[in-house]
Amino acid sequence: MAYLFVHFREKTSPDGEQVYFGLSRDGFTWEEVNHGQPVLWAYYGDKGVRDFTITKCEETGKYYILATDLSLSYGMRNQYHNSWEEIGRNGSKYFSLWESTDLVSWSEQRLVKLGDDDFGCLWAPDIIFDRKEGDYVIHWSSSHKSNDYGNKAIYYSRTKDFETFSGPEILYRKEDSGVIDSAMYEEDGKYYLFVKSEGNPERIILLKAESVTGPFERIKAFDESMKVIQAGLYEAPTAVRVEDGKWCLFLDYYGVPGAGQGYIPFVADSLASGRFVRSDKDFRFPYGYKHGTIIKISQEEYERIRASYA
Q1: Which letter, b or e, does each residue of 269-308 get, where b requires 16 or more Cβ atoms within 10 Å of its Cβ?
Q2: What pTM, to 2 d.p., does this model score?
């Protein structure tokens, strides 16, 4: 067993907002791929991509990467006029998508429209397989015309083949603040949803449900775990269960400018416990990995990726 981390890099130049790979044999010590350069580039849409997720589809046998269609390097200066609010209202209604059978040879980037014209920008997709329905649930955060593009909520769409998609529906809305950056995992038949709450508290929260689409209830023990970190400086949760059964949770720290940003690790015995302990000394990254997703891969796939970008 090995691990692939798909992420971007915090840089002011356009090469940062592209597709990067990191590899690990154990989930703790990470290495760069392609000498720390992008493995895929976005040539369509906003010509930049952020906030990646990756999954393997059993129906097609292919791996799929989905990403936010957004370039701050180009767009923030250009069509968005240095305004996060303008991105929120008028940003892309598409996700960027690549597909591959071997994690090395990838298709041309294509744009997948999941939001209609009432949506603001579609941010930070994540994918989970719904065992009960036998399909994949793509979920993301957006603002919406229905509340004048105010507090964001988490929406979802279903697909079996990553060619056709159901219309968007609400997955989770927090009554007293916006929520962004959703990431969902299954443990012992239950579903656990990490999201960043934009207020009350301005931290990551953890929710639990019997099914992929909820309803969700808050895990209070996780709130206690997060009290040790400063509010308002962490986002983009992503997690993986390593071979000893423990869960590694990574939170993207953005409390400093530039390359000092990146993932900070936490470890728990289970998602159900909600008790995560910060564990910086147990992890090694070659540079600051930004907002991405980890997928388990075979040793053969690990060696193939390393050799292809050597």
Answers
A1: eebbebebeebeeebebeebbbbbbbbebeeebbeebeee
A2: 0.97
Residue environment code for 156-189, b if the CB has 16+ CB neighbours within 10 A, otherwise e:
bbbbbebeebeebeebbebeebbbbbbbbbeeee
Which pLDDT band, with edges at 50, 70 and 90, does 260 fall under? confident
Side chain identity, residue 212? V
Q: Tell me the pLDDT tens digit for each residue of 101-139.
A: 999 999 999 999 999 999 999 999 999 999 999 999 999
Q: Between vectors from CA 224 to CA 223 and to CA 225, what angle results, nearest 5°?
A: 90
221: closest CA among 269, 185, 293? 269
β-strand partners of 158: 137
Hey, what are 222's tokens?
């996780």
- Kindly provide the residue ranges of all beta strands, DSSP E only, lying in the chain, ordered along the sequence: 2-8, 20-24, 30-32, 49-56, 63-69, 94-100, 110-113, 123-130, 135-142, 153-159, 169-172, 179-187, 190-197, 204-209, 217-218, 234-241, 247-253, 262-268, 277-278, 290-297
Q: How confident is the model at residue 37 (pLDDT cuts 50, 70, 90)?
A: very high
Parallel/antiparallel/unpaired status of strands 123-130 and 135-142: antiparallel
Question: How many helices and strands (H and E) does the chain possess?
Answer: 3, 20
Expressed in angstroms, the distance from the first to the final Cα of the chain is: 20
Q: Is the pLDDT of residue 257 over 90?
A: no
* Cα(116)–Cα(169) distance, integer angstroms: 11
